[in-house]
Amino acid sequence: MTHIIKRGAREYESYSREKLHRSIVAVCRSVHASEGSAETAATATCDAVDTWLKSRPEVTSGDIRRIAAKTLKIHNPDAAYYYTQHKHIM
Amino acid sequence: MIDLYIAFAIIGLAALIHASFQLGVSMLTLLSGHSLSIKRSELRIFRLTTSFVMGAGTMTLLLLAITVLTFRYLIPVHNPLIWSIVSGLLIGIGFAVLFTYYRAGRGTMLWIPRGFADFLTRRTKATRRSAESFSLGLTSVISELLFIAAPLVVSAYVIIHLPAAWQLVAILGYVAISLSSLLIVWGLLGYGRKISRIQRWREQNKTFLQYISAISLVTLGAFTYVNEVIGGLI
After folding, report:
1. Per-residue pLDDT reduced to its tens digit, B182-223
2. What is the predicted ipTM?
């Protein structure tokens, strides 16, 4: 089980594929992607993150976001851009 | 009495400077993006974004009207000392915009404290009803009062020099121009433009917008000082 260190938080959180999947689907919808395309991009992104996490017991939420954005960029560049901007809009 | 053309030129430029401030646009972008992500209907998103813009417009109108009313009763008309203070405020806030308006780094992170930005982000995402969205629009103007104070104050002081019939026109004109950036983003979102493209444009042009706002504030401050203070001595 991989632990995630969240920004500004003192406790660890376990990695949740479902949570990442939901957030990728949501960001794809934000840029007007179709339901099918959002699901495909989210599944591919989660697979890539799962693979990357295999040898890493502890990562930061920023690492997950970076790796997810890298894969998402292949499937939906607009969604990937908006995903990386999430905390930098305001 | 200040020349009518000069008065409207000052108010127009001040309103454009107000429009260049970005907190409202950031909140509108987040509101629309989050609404799309949770599959709200187009009509619902339209209602939310429209309420937001109306809220921002209402608060701008209230603030300007209150400032005009306060100045009308408390501050002498065409006083060089008041013009000097207004000019100093414009120039000071111009330099503040130049050095502090955007945070360094990626994105369009604004000067507001991070805790408050997180709160506004959470509040924006939790917005479900039009009334909440309207109040969020009101809040967006209040939150940026530190910077919009300069264009508001100079416009209010110019407005009290105008004949009564022109004062309402000037106030409504200021509100309409100050909302132009929000109205453009609202129109683009309503037209179906991708939020990522709007955000990318904002990120790519943030330095330009920052410099334009700062230079305009300093120029306006210098102009009011030369025209109303030094010009009054000659």
Report:
1. 999 999 999 999 999 999 999 999 999 999 999 999 999 999
2. 0.89
- For residue A63, tell me if it sits in a domain: yes
The pLDDT tens digits for B112-127 are 999 999 999 999 999 9
- Determine the structural domain holding residue A31 and report its residue range: 3-85
* Number of domains into which chain A is organized: 1
Q: Structural domain boundaries of chain B? A: 4-226
Cβ contact, residue pair B196, A79, below 8 Å: yes
173-192 in B: which are within 8 Å (CB) of A? 192
Nearest to B33 among A30, A84, A88 (CB): A30
Decide if A90 is inside a domain. Answer: no
- Return the DSSP state at A6: P
